[in-house]
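Figure 2 data, in text form.
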Amino acid sequence: MKKNVLFLVADDQRFNTVHALGNKEIQTPNLDKLVERGTTFENAYIPGGTSGAVCMPSRAMMHTSQHLFQLQDLGAVIPKDHAILGEELKKNGYQTIGIGKWHNGIDGYGRAFTDGGKIFFGGMWDHWNVPVNNFDPSKKYDQWKNFTYDPFSTNIKIKMPADHLDLGKHSTDLFSDEIIKKIHEVSGSEQPLFINGNFLAPHDPRTMPEKFQNMYDPDQIELPVNYLPEHPFDFDVKAQRDESLEAYPRPEKAVRQHIADYYAMISHIDERIGTIIDALKETGQLENTLIIFTGDNGISIGQHGLMGKQNLYEHSIHVPLIMAGPGIPENYRVEERALLLDIMPTILDYTGVQIPEGLFGKSLLPVIAGVEEGRKEIYLLFTDKIRGLLKENYKLIEYATIYGRHTQLFDLMKDPKEMNNLADSEEFQPLVKEMQAELVRHAKVLGDRQFEQGKIFWAQKEKLESEK
């Protein structure tokens, strides 16, 4: 019998937001249980983003296993020649159900899913007033013809009929209830099931049901050790909407409140994940279901003086990745590095579906089994402003913006919060130069055209500065 797959994705949930994984302030009993009965990748990453709306390319990468430079329209559209996770499962007998946020175009959704409901085709919204669509077998979704989305500013303009607004129900409950409904509807079917459930939370606006509003006392929240009132240097992200969510310098009291609200939204998701798993158990499907939980990207909320995810620090690119189900080792941690775009080939491998050629990702099952290593080097980027490289214990970050050029080097083993920049130390100059050369090599291989055929982008920035 083929295994079912439940793939759950939170929006803006960073890696250190699960109690069982080391965060003693947050309450996540159901994710804790998932950690206990499954395998956790302690070093799962996104490679960054080509858009200020980082979640859009991130989700496109998850569903196509293509790298950032192979995406179309920054991930807003999935090209017809790109394989899609749901479509590959559908070709092999799966009923594929898409619920919640789908940020990658109506055509891509139509290809991926045979059923669904409560679909949101945008990036973010008021959690209590989400314009959603029921599944349309014709795949037209005509009501979205007035929908426009600017991935750089995340401005959204939409005209939506009132009967497509779910007023007064929080998005987490809206989508969780729909997932549970579908689990019960397909109970007893001999057709294997793939459910992709996508939350809007804990993305701002950070609102939650009354039960969770006072769960965390902001006065008792510890500020991150790498909290700063402002970033040490400007790198041209103040125009991003995320950075406008709090004043400069960042007030300590306000940052604590942001964190308390963020944790409350995650605890709300956690409670609903518990009810979803209960539905699988009640319908006799739990023991035949692979459950995968992750977040599409992280977020700063005061760390390094930043509020958003438009950077390459760990708090923004390092995400949770938990897998539990038949054949997956229990209470097991994997230290090897992985990318979220490895999820697609992992699911296909797990379900016995042939992995299409041309994917950037690779199955993580051999890594879990210990017969293959994880990723030794990961190329990082944010738009045309920042490039980075993860290699062994080190992370190199290079900035080139209208405000100047900066280099950072962090030893993540000794300095996981990235507080001690080693780039100016004489001792580390050989490593800096070596990793800079590796950046150029990766750029050429990946087709990073902003390097202008290998010309080092920070040298371009120095030329611009000299012309001022």
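Caption note: Residues 354 and 381 are 31 Å apart (CA to CA).
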